[in-house]
Amino acid sequence: MATHLETNLGLLQELINKDPESYKEEFLAEYNFYIKTIQLLRLQPSLNHADLQSLLELINFLASASTHYPKEGTEYAASIMEILNSRLTGLDPEIRVAFCKALVILRNRRIVDPLAVMDLFFTLVPCEDKNLRKFICGSIKALIKKLTLQYRDQKMLSKVRTFLFTKLKDSRSIVVRTAELVLIDGFRKGFLKDAKTANALAECCLHKISRIQIAAIRFFLGSLEDNDSDDDESASEEDQKTLKEVVVAYKAAKKTRKKKERYMKAKKLLSKGKKSKNENAGKFCNLLAIRYIYDPQTFAERLFGLLENRKNEKFETRLLCMALCARLIGTHRLQALSFYSYMHRFLQPKQREITRILLYVAQACHELVPPDIIEQLVYVIAQNFVSDRNTPEAVTVGLNTIREIFANCPFAATEDLLRDLTDYKRFKNKNVSMAARGIITLFRAVNPKLLHRKDRGRPTQKLKDLKVAEFGVEYAKEFVEGAECLPVEADAIDRELNDESDDTDFDSDFDTEFVEHDSLDSDVNMDSCGNHVVVTDICVNNARSPNKESLETNDQKITFSDTKKKARRVCETRILTQNDFRKINAFRLKQQVGYDGKRRNDDIKLEEELGETIARHNEENGLTRLKDIEKFHKKLRKETKEERVETVKKGREGRQQFGKPKKAGAHVGRTNRELMKRKNFQMVRHKLRGKNRQRSFKDRQESLRKYLLRQAGRKI
């Protein structure tokens, strides 16, 4: 039995797990054999394949079974760490990885200190072994995940994070690179999502090694395009493996309709999940990380100084630095005036990645930048892009960029420049004319006085009450706009009725008249101006006042001379509900409508785009998008058939199927002749007699006669 157990370590491990004390002698025998093998390994580092495989199995067995024997387990862990420290490069790569895996098992069983194991792993990182580095990086990520979710040991997690921060200052670039990847993964997955991690990674953006710098900048920009990231590689391998398993399982099984539906559904879900994962993995974490930076002004100045001084860097690296500078300036509303003059040299139509550079310029503009700086920037773009000597595509991109810049800081526009730009609305190319009309639509909502009189459109109530934005001036809201459409609470009405002499916000006279209602569903009636409010008996029934009976019989019509005072009064005297806000939104929409006649589809589309832009600017991340710069209303080239089919299929995703179910079945399209072939022979046997016999001369003559008559168009 003992001999059989010596050769079968798996069976011995199972028996030890069931009864450790009974099989301690067998474990000690294997442990002594391990010690002798290690002594032999020090004398003869190279082993043949058979001895190597037996040693790997023994290392794994001792790591799993030593948890039942604490003393031997501690000695075993110490021997592994001593071997790895003393013979860093002399060991066989497979044995070195096996020792590291054993240490991870002992670390998870709390036999060895996690910080000691991490210190040893970072000592092994400089070894030229890609598989070892990948395993070390993955094991540290797994440790952070366990400490966060399973153990919930914040104290140890804090020590691990501090240890990683110290490794970011190491002189060896590969060590810094490994610690950086671990911290980026921890932040993205939410295990180390705090300000300390974000600021430690911000220092990596200023590192002298470009590889480390690019990885940190891409993290802040929310990009996952890091080809050296082991986590991304492993994730893609797992997705590929899962998809392969689904395909193989379907091909090996019997083909049925139900299995085919399951296969197609699983394939679609895998591709859709992978696509959404790649799209959404870094969208919010970059904004959060940028907001976590302690001193964004200093950090942006240091990064911009790095961009100016390093003139021999690759263009891609400089482009990433521009992107991060623009994102920092736009998010934190920073003052970096030299950045705008630096970008002038790149604003040429033939510049590489010019649309991205224009995007970064638009993102860096905000309402706190002085108007003269923005005006110079817009003049450079207009001079280099918006001219007849450029292609229509360049003019369109230039106008789109100017529109996005003016959307961020409209007070930088001048009347002469704006009228020159809006003259392109009559350009023969539709993309150019739509881009120019987009600027007109923007300033109709922001500052119509700068436009030519015929471009201002019909005035609405909202435009009459519009305040033109000025540099450095913020308008604080004292009330909810549109609240004048709501009735004042009945208690406030009673107080006003009882004390008319002290009233300063309302008119002194109240005209009381009877109002007939068809139904009791409406609480408020308004005239076209929105200044007259009729308080019905429903409103009065909910009030608690001494004049309740008189208010029940007579509806009060209250006229307010100033809608702003009325709106302020409404906001001060009542708590607004969701229904109130719906009425306010409907009232504001009614104010915006100035013309009920026919409107062109292009105008409707431009107004919808402006509404989306304003809504996005009001959100936390109101930065310009690349598709806003590259917006072409008319496609530049005709789509191929494959592209059109792909667009149609993409539009059908998630849409409910239409049509009769019968037309989508498995037996659609078969003729009666084909269906007859599938019938039982006894069912069609009687037809064979008539099918094979020959017709008589009279039958053939009669058939020919009828055929000729039909051909001649005569009735038979």
TrEMBL record:
A Gene Ontology BP annotation from the UniProt entry: ribosomal large subunit export from nucleus
Signal peptide positions on this chain: none
Domain spans labelled SDA1 middle: 493-651
A GO cellular component entry from the record: nucleolus
Keyword hit for Amino-acid biosynthesis: no
Origin superkingdom: Eukaryota
Coiled coil: none
Principal place of residence: nucleus
Pfam family, one: SDA1_dom
Presence of the UniProt keyword Transport in the record: yes
Domain SDA1 N-terminal: 61-428
Keywords attached to this entry: Nucleus, Protein transport, Ribosome biogenesis, Transport
Cellular location(s): Nucleus, Nucleolus
Domain SDA1 C-terminal: 669-711
Family: Belongs to the SDA1 family.
Function: Required for 60S pre-ribosomal subunits export to the cytoplasm.
PANTHER family for the chain: HSDA/SDA1-RELATED, PROTEIN SDA1 HOMOLOG
The name this protein goes by in its record: Protein SDA1
